Amino acid sequence: MATTAVLPERTNYLNAEHGIRSWLFTTDHKRIALLYLISITLFFFIGGFFALLIRLELLTPAGDLLTADMYNKAFTMHGQVMIFFFLIPSIPAVLGNFLVPIMVGAKDLAFPRINLLSWYIYIVAGILYIHCLVTGGVDTGWTFYVPFSSAFSNTKVVEAGLAIFISGFSSILTGLNFVVTVHRMRAPGMTWSRLPLFVWSHYATSIIMLLGTPVIAITLVLVVLERALNLGIFDPSRGGDPVLFQHLFWFYSHPAVYIMILPSMAVISEIVPCFSRKRIFGYSFVAMSSIAIAVIGFLVWAHHMFVAGISLYSALVFSFLSFLVAVPSAVKVFNWTATMFRGSVSFSTPMLYAFGFIGLFTIGGLTGLFLATLGVDVHVHDTYFVIAHFHYIMVGGAIMGYLGGMHFWWPKISGRMYPEGWGRLAALIVFIGFNLTFFPQFILGYLGMPRRYWDYSHMPEWQALNVLSTAGASILAVGYLLPLAYMLWSLRYGKPAEDNPWKATGLEWRTPSPPPTFNFDETPVVTWEAYEYETMPLPEEVTLER
Amino acid sequence: MSDSTVAMEHEARPELRHHFADEQQQRNAASLGMWWFLGTEIMFFGGMFCGYLVYRRIYFPEFAVASRSLDLIVGTFNTTVLICSSLTVAQAVRAAQLGKRALQVKMLLLTLLFGLAFLGIKAYEWGNKYKEHHIPTFEYNVVSGEGSLIKGNEKLLGIEEVQNDPVKLQQRKAEIQAHTKIFYSLYFALTGMHALHMVVGVGIFAVITWMAWKGRFTPEYHTPLEIAGLYWHFVDIVWIYLFPLLYLIDRRPVG
Amino acid sequence: MFDNFPLWPASASSNAFHVDLLYSFLVVVTIVMTLLIFTAVGIFAVKYRRRHGREAQPIHGSLLLEIAWSIAPLGLFMLIFAWGAVLFFQMRTPPQDASEIYVVAKQWMWKLQHMEGPREINQLHVPTGRNIKLIMTSQDVIHSFFIPEFRIKQDVLPGRYTTVWFRATVPGTYHLFCAQYCGTQHSGMIGEVVVMNPQDYQAWITGGAPTGSLAQNGQTLFQQLGCSTCHRFDVQGRGPNLTGIYGKPVALEDGRTITVDDNYIRESILNPAAKVVSGFKPIMPVFQGQVSEEQLNALVAYVKSLTQQPAGGVAATSSNNPGPATEKPKE
Asked: In the sheet that C109-114 helps form, which strands lie side by side, from edge to edge?
């Protein structure tokens, strides 16, 4: 079978116009999605570089690779880059931008020019941050706690704060576009109850982006003003309250973690039905769970502050609410699992990532319970237990969902198939590398290893687990480099994709691969429910080429 | 496969953008977008309101005294100016709905005038604050000199009871200095952010006025004017909250 | 527990067992739920894998199941919440009879003051069986007082006091860590908690006799009091390198030049701001009232003895302040 047959090229969004100007001034949501894809991938590797420095340093107990200040900058910038410049945009700005309009049956997002603006804002923020990085960097920890950040740090806090402040606007505008698109641009017949769950999750995510991001914006502005003008809003030596900063900071930064995970859940909700050839189990419950997570997620922020000096009664309230927010997440996991029951399950790469997600998110989510539990949190707060918990969710969950989604929609986006054998291998390597990296950190945390420690030479007993963790990280790195390589390869040598290689439901699969610039030749009129897999034929066996 | 049930571009006005099915959809989208954006603005100012609430509660005497140092007459006048500007915006929208181009332009020009007046009066107030040394960072001093907040407020600020103890007096003065500084920091941050939004608003309305003058707004299509009006009204409402919170903390006559 | 590969720290406080118990329950819940999901996914993936002639069954959902698997976890979570809340309530309610110790955190050391008088830096001696309440504040940024073996942690804030209490149960030496990132030497802001049985503690608190030569005692004190945190020998620290300074001239911040003699060393310990070496900030803590005459003599003798750079630096292989060598913690 010819693998690189050259078909006569139809006009699609990739070849409709040529030249750099047609890309930099595009208003096509699909092209903007690719602009974002390139930028966030760059930042992912920058953030990954800092992770590499951290893990290498921690191979030995002594602080012998970097100076303490360099290490402190490394973990700060690893966190800031990964959170603000990779995870928060990732799925929404790439897959969301690409798919939401098509999934609702629209020709574009509600505000295409604002969409392009949001990418430029992200780029400006990114350039400012990189400038900050190369001219000294910042060492406050990604959490910017005062008064260290406003009065004691000697690094470029103002610049980093401003860069992140600016990137927030990119997030807000993306969320704005999604919300208005879902409300106002659905094709005839596309009722709310027929929307793909991908859209429901992105809708919930957008609500959080819109309502949460402005709070971190104003908080960073106040820190910058305090630092630059010596104001004293948070600095106790000038009458301020450092705990107020923490409340304002976490009011956004907790919902932010839901910005990072809901889109990944969105992807899983699309992949599992497709590769089980069945409707999602409990559609309305999964949809409502997304909304519930978004809403309750705004009410739990102070669980990051149980030992920060808040009152006992505050702590009780926030602990209680934190347990509540775990329920909708559990409901989703159960529904995905039940979807496979009496299905027809296949093991293509996207599904392997979905399996990985379900397993790792379960572990990550359950370890969140440890942190919500007041008596236990006291011991594990600010230790490697927390680091392990959030990496299970962010990396084991969010990034696996991202990779699963990229593989699932790659044929649609690029018009090519990625090589399936390599895809499955990479998924396996990522899974193994990930667990080896982060599972030992749960143990390290309970043993008492605090976060953000450059040197642990007085606790050499921690070395063995740290070595395991670093070994895992090196495997994980391979797992991440592979898709970069073979997906780029596939752009030229990959098998050309049909319109619907997975025989999936969803309006995006009724367009060509890749789609034309305006998505649909005629506006679709929807008369069917989401995930009507009983009416779909089976896909051909996807062969393991190379 | 699918029947198209929506009218296509060839009949529509030039303002209709290609990805919308019809003008109604475009107008609804624009309106919803602006409402959500205003929601984000509420959250943005909300952070500062939150800080204000916390500090007002724990440093009430200092906040009350500092609040009284703001000029009530000027502030009230400025509030009236801003409310009038919202009135003229609403009138401009009405004029557009009625197809009256000249009236639109008149009302929009008045809006710009009121907006600039508001900003000018604000600058005047800030200038006074500067002279009184009430701007944090710029030779801030509330315990002595012409900007002293202590005179007449000794009882309220707890100065009276420590008059005779120089160490305690010094300490209390330092506290007053620090706590009032928080009030003024929030005052300038809040009114500064508000002024920034006003400046943006004036810029937007300058463009809108030009568009109106060019006859771009008709009874069938005046969406940019409507949503710009929404923005302007919102900035007005923010001020309506700021004014009592900042100027009217405690205006009882000091006995 | 597993001596060669411990999964949790030693339990040395009255609190530790209860925290570990709840933690173990959570571990069991996690393992059970994880196995449940992994097994379900595994079984479904295999049993219902794609096969010719067998189609997927269109099942939409089940209200009963949804309710069941919402209510059941909720119930379990409420149980865990309540258990954790009760434990937390106890941890946050110091007993009425607790003795108090004041703690001041600063970048990057812990200063502790017993009510009976003795002060410690980066070390805390306590007896077993006594309720102890720490009243803590910070001089600069937010720190966090963390003793893993006691399962306690509390952020230490500037501008106010926070408290934490414990009752040590097993003699031994345990780790004290700063758990809130506080700048360059955050990982060096560590120390020891020395738990003694009541008689030994009595002996300690009323003063013990030093052993060894004067300079050796001075070396011990130099580490104990945290001097080595800033006066480093390996790299430029926050204080001047004291190697070979005795008898040499040194330039001061105010422009004068003086010769380092016994008096200068003594003065710099008791009143460091009087004559600050040029190029350094006046941040050294005041030791007036914290060291006895004998201890002063020992320190001066030690500094005088530093004629050449100590091999490998005084503070062993690390740049942190370690405290003196200790016995292994008893299980």
From this structure: C119-121, C109-114, C99-106, C131-138, C162-167
* Structural domains counted in chain B: 1
pLDDT at residue C175 tops 60: yes
> What are the residue ranges spanned by the domains of chain C?
8-48+94-208, 214-304
* Contact at CB, B2 and A215, closer than 8 angstroms: no
| Confidence category of residue C2, pLDDT binned at 50, 70, 90 | low
Q: What CATH number is given for C8-48+94-208 in this structure?
A: 2.60.40.420
| A521: Cβ contacts below 8 Å, ≥ 6 apart | none
CB contact under 8 A, A358 and C89: no
Q: Write the DSSP string, A127-195.
A: HHHHHHHHTT---STTTT-TTIIIII--S-HHHHHHHHHHHHHHHHHHHHHHHHHHHH-PPTT--GGGS
Which band of pLDDT confidence, cut at 50, 70 and 90, is reported for residue C308? low
| CATH code at position A328 | 1.20.210.10
Specify the CATH number of the domain C214-304: 1.10.760.10
Give C188-227 pLDDT, tens digit per residue. 999 999 999 999 998 888 765 445 577 777 888 888 788 8
Average pLDDT, chain C: 86
Residue A298 lies in a domain: yes
Minimum-distance CB partner of A342 among C56, C78, C188: C56
Mean pLDDT by 10 residues, chain B (255 residues): 40 76 91 96 94 94 93 96 97 95 96 97 94 88 86 85 86 91 94 96 97 92 95 97 94 73
The span from the CA of C231 to the CA of C269, in Å, is 12
Matching CATH topology for C8-48+94-208 and C214-304?
A: no
Chain A and chain B touch, per 3+ beta carbon pairs within 8 A: yes
Q: Kindly list the distances between the CA atom of residue A274 and the CA atoms of A133, A335, C130, in Å, as whole numbers in the listed order.
A: 43, 14, 63
Query: Nearest by CB to C49, which of A243, A345, A534?
Result: A345
A525/B2 Cβ within 8 A: yes
Q: Which of chain A's residues have a Cβ under 8 Å away from the Cβ of B1? A: 522, 524
8 Å CB contact of A533 and C181: no
Searching chain B, which residue's CA lies closest to the CA of residue A178?
A: B33
Going by C-alpha positions, the residue among A216, A83, A72 that lies closest to residue A138 is A72
Whether chain A has a CB inside 8 Å of the CB on C84: the answer is: yes
Residue A159 belongs to what domain range? Answer: 31-535
Contact A124, A529 (CB under 8 A): no
Assess whether pLDDT exceeds 60 at residue A442.
yes
Does B86 fall in a domain?
yes
- What is the C-alpha to C-alpha distance for residues C149 and C93, in angstroms, rounded to an integer? 19
ipTM at complex level: 0.92
**Residue A7, pLDDT score:** 54
Q: Which of A335, A345, A361, A462 to mutate to test the interface with C (most CBs of C within 10 A)?
A: A345
In a domain, residue A26? The reply is no
- The answer for residues whose C-beta is within 8 angstroms of residue B96's C-beta and 6 or more apart is B104, B212, B217, B218, B219, B222, B225
